[in-house]
Automatic annotation (TrEMBL):
Main function: Catalyzes the phosphorylation of riboflavin (vitamin B2) to form flavin-mononucleotide (FMN), hence rate-limiting enzyme in the synthesis of FAD. Essential for TNF-induced reactive oxygen species (ROS) production. Through its interaction with both TNFRSF1A and CYBA, physically and functionally couples TNFRSF1A to NADPH oxidase. TNF-activation of RFK may enhance the incorporation of FAD in NADPH oxidase, a critical step for the assembly and activation of NADPH oxidase.
Signal peptide stretch: none
Name of the protein in its database record: Riboflavin kinase
Keyword Transferase: yes
Record lineage: Eukaryota, Metazoa, Chordata, Craniata, Vertebrata
Length: 157
């Protein structure tokens, strides 16, 4: 099922999440608004994915994406969190995030400890980097999707 919807192109505003990613894990993630999450194809299974991401009209970076059920909402709302494999100097809440999901790494799983979770995410990141260097994934980095038309830029820094 997962592969039928991929690559999946998605764009939306970055909103504040629960702040867990950066504070507890040292792995900052960008959250999409609810409307964007609700527009995701229902046949994309939860789990960890990889692809490309671009903030505003910035550079395109490798990313890892988690699609999961948000326990906070008693599992009725999906959450989609993007970890861009790049160090940003500042938050980009309110910016437009454009992503292309190109492949699937693994299903969601529960971890016994924060350390286990962090090491799993580090492995996911390494896997994403490897996969995204393959020609079929690399070519999507240059996709026209990432070139926002002038005037679509929300906060032009």
């Amino acid at each position: 099922g997962a592969m039928r919807s991929l690559p999946y192109f998605c764009r939306g505003e970055v909103v504040k999440g629960f702040g867990r990613g950066s504070k507890q894990l040292g792995i900052p993630t960008a959250n999409f608004s609810e409307q964007v999450v609700e527009s995701f194809p229902s046949d994309i299974p939860t789990g960890i994915y990889y692809g490309w991401a671009c903030v505003g009209n910035g550079d395109v970076h490798k990313m890892v994406l988690s699609i999961g059920w948000n326990p906070f909402y008693k599992n009725i709302k999906k959450s989609v969190e993007t970890h861009i494999i790049h160090t940003f100097k500042e938050d980009f809440y309110g910016e437009i995030l454009s992503i292309v999901i190109t492949g699937y790494i693994r299903p969601e799983k529960n971890f016994d400890s924060v350390d286990a979770l962090i090491s799993a995410i580090q492995e996911d990141i390494e896997e994403a980097k490897r996969q995204l260097d393959l020609p079929e994934h690399l070519k999507l980095k240059e996709d026209n999707f990432f070139h926002l038309p002038e005037g679509k830029i929300v906060n032009n820094h």
